[in-house]
């Protein structure tokens, strides 16, 4: 029913610009949820919970950061069957992001290009939304993805991450350090060399301090790009292990345009997501899994457009997966398909 309903509405949504239809979809979802109609569509699947980072996830399929940047739609999204939802990327101060247009659909490739630039209403607003949904009885797992403001110099980036970490700690189930968006100048430099070790070391120190203060341990995840050489994978893996980071999220969007050459919007600046990043992401997961073993679990994200794609991420070494871009083309039925495929796979193995 989800699938049929979304396929009916999709042509109408695609008449609008990508960002406009994104906003309309989320607002419609919120309204449908408030009217109690989402329950009519949802298909319940018996799932086996899985423990990752010390957290018990009801199923292995999550929502990647970026869809709900401010936590405004948590309640509605939680009714779609996700095992967990990651919100953000959030920054200490609100910011408008890059000029519009900054989001582009490439339907021939089942892809999206975005250069949003961490547009968000700031950490305080996001936490108000999380608090509200928690008070209403929401028990679901919420990850909070944190970044730096665009006008914070890269050498001072740790200050912004520390602000967000301290603020989010009490309400997050896990916190993701986003150092891989291509749309904030200089951000990806934090994935390399001394900058990465310095950032992870200061965040780990703060995490342990907060854990003692609150008597509650909130895991830290690091989100990386797919555009990494094998040497860079090796270096990042060592940095994660050296700093006792709890989880890796692989991967963010790609700067590569090989798969969309000659297509309308194919040469727009920004990060490319969707099917073109699928194999690149899966290969990076495989490389990290070989280096990290069982010491640092991986959340696989990038180009998951069907249940088989989700299974491929698990086979490559991920423990959990996240979806995003394919939801725009397929709607919420994708979630159920991936949950069922992974449940079947786990039973077989």
Helix content: 40-55%
Low-confidence stretches: none
Radius of gyration: 19 Å
How many independent structural domains? 1
Q: What is the correct CATH architecture?
A: Alpha-Beta Barrel
- Alpha-carbon distance between the two ends: 30 Å
Derived from helix and strand composition plus strand pairing, the structural class reads: alpha/beta
- CATH T-level topology: TIM Barrel
Tell me the strand order in the biggest sheet.
Answer: 3-4-7-8-9-10-12-13
> CATH H-level name... which superfamily?
Aldolase class I
Largest sheet: 8 strands, parallel, barrel
Average pLDDT metric: 95
Count of separate DSSP helical elements: 12
Global outline: globular
What would you note in describing this structure?
- Helices cover 41% and strands 16% of the residues.
- The chain has 349 residues and is an alpha/beta fold.
- It has one domain: Aldolase class I (TIM Barrel, Alpha-Beta Barrel), CATH 3.20.20.70.
- Helix 6 packs parallel to helix 7.
- The two termini are 30 Å apart.
Task: Please describe the topology of this protein.
Layout: H1 2-13, H2 18-34, H3 38-41, E1 50-52, E2 55-57, E3 61-63, H4 74-77, E4 84-90, E5 103-106, E6 111-114, H5 123-135, E7 141-146, H6 157-168, E8 174-178, H7 193-214, E9 220-224, H8 230-242, E10 247-250, E11 271-274, H9 278-292, E12 298-301, H10 307-316, E13 320-323, H11 325-330, H12 333-348
Parallel strand pairs: 3-4, 3-13, 4-7, 7-8, 8-9, 9-10, 10-12, 12-13
Antiparallel strand pairs: 1-2, 5-6, 6-11
Concise synopsis of the structure shown:
By secondary structure, the chain is α/β, with parallel strands linked by helices. It contains twelve helices and 13 strands.
């Amino acid at each position: 029913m989800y699938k049929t309903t979304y396929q009916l509405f999709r042509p109408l949504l695609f008449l609008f610009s990508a960002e406009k239809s994104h906003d309309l979809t989320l607002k419609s979802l919120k309204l449908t949820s408030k009217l109690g109609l989402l329950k009519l569509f949802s298909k319940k699947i018996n799932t086996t919970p899985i423990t990752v980072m010390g957290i018990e996830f009801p199923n292995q399929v999550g929502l990647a950061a970026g869809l709900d940047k401010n936590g405004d739609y948590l309640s509605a999204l939680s009714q779609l069957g996700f095992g967990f939802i990651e919100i953000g990327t959030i920054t200490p101060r609100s910011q408008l992001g890059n000029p519009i247009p900054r989001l582009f659909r490439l339907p021939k490739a089942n892809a999206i290009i975005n250069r949003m630039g961490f547009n968000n209403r700031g950490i305080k607003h996001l936490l108000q939304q999380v608090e509200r949904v928690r008070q209403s009885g929401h028990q679901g797992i919420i990850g909070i993805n944190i970044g730096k403001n665009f006008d914070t110099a890269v050498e001072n980036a740790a200050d912004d991450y520390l602000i967000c970490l301290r603020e989010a700690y009490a309400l997050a189930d896990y916190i993701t350090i986003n150092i891989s968006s291509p749309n904030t100048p200089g951000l990806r430099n934090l994935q390399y060399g001394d900058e990465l070790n310095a950032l992870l070391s200061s965040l780990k120190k703060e995490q342990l301090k907060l854990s003692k203060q609150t008597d509650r341990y909130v895991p830290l995840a690091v989100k990386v790009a797919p555009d990494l050489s094998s040497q860079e994978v090796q270096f990042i893996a060592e940095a994660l292990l050296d700093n006792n980071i709890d989880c890796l999220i692989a991967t963010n969007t790609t700067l590569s345009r090989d798969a969309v050459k000659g297509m309308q919007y194919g040469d727009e600046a920004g990060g490319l997501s969707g099917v073109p990043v699928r194999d690149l992401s899966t290969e990076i997961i495989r490389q990290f899994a070989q280096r990290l073993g069982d010491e640092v679990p991986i959340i696989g994200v990038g180009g998951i457009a069907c249940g088989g794609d989700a299974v491929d991420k698990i086979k490559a070494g991920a423990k959990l997966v996240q979806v995003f871009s394919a939801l725009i083309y397929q709607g919420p039925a994708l979630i159920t398909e991936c949950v069922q495929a992974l449940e079947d796979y786990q039973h077989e193995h």
